[in-house]
Input
Amino acid sequence: MIEFNLNYWTPLVINFFRYFIMAGIPFLIFYRLYPDFFSKNKIQDRFAKQKDFVREIRHSLQTTLIIVVVGILILKTPLNEWTLVYKNLFDYSLWWVPLSLFLTLILHDAYFYWIHRFMHHPWVYKRVHLVHHKSVNPSPWTSYSFHVYESFLEALIAPIILCLIPLHPLSLILFTTISFGFNVYGHLGYEITPKWFRNSYLFEIMNTSTHHNIHHATSKGNYGLYFRFWDRLMGTEYPDYVKEYDEIQDRRFGHADGQ
Output
């Protein structure tokens, strides 16, 4: 019974705890304690309602449960033999830890982009992805607010990565933490990038909260997760994204960098 608790219940508790901490703290800061202080950072003028937050949390807890179950099946059952997980940190060079982490983000971004585009097929959107897009004005709670079928597709990235890329548990923990953290930022509803970001190479590569917020507001384009690569390559980036980003930065800093 003790072994069962350690192997099965602990990951569930940890992931639920992570959701409420990593989504809850930004929500508390931006939506409850200091909304006036961050008013210039707000991407959309309107605010979601309490019932929206409740719906988002309910669906996010369901998604968290599915992710944990898929993780347990791939790591705690004989299916683990199919993965490339290694437990001895020195089985590979130490430089492989950050490199493997980088590769997981690249692979996840590609997977997310094409799954996301599939979710916007009219038939699939109406029956599945609409659950996520009920959050027209997203909040941190929106991060995992998916239909059960979409939750399962989102969870599949873990076994795919673990079967393709040798990963130490440290890399896996960093990947899941970065992934969820970026998801929270994308749904934050506020733009928090620093002033210098606009004129850096990072702006040309990375997505922003504004980038994904536009997707929720319009239900069109901006399908990527971490990077702008796929949207720019496939011509699916919202045409006025840079203009809208600059308008928010203009409101924050007095003038829009890059103009």
Summary: The CA atoms of residues 56 and 142 lie 5 Å apart. DSSP finds eleven helices and no strands in the chain. Residues 1-5 have pLDDT under 50 and may be disordered.
